[in-house]
Amino acid sequence: MGVLVPAGDEALLLDEDELAEAVATGHLDEQAAAEVTVLGEAILVAPATYAPPLWHGLDPLQLMAGG
Question: Domain residues of the chain, as ranges?
Answer without folding.
Answer: 2-64
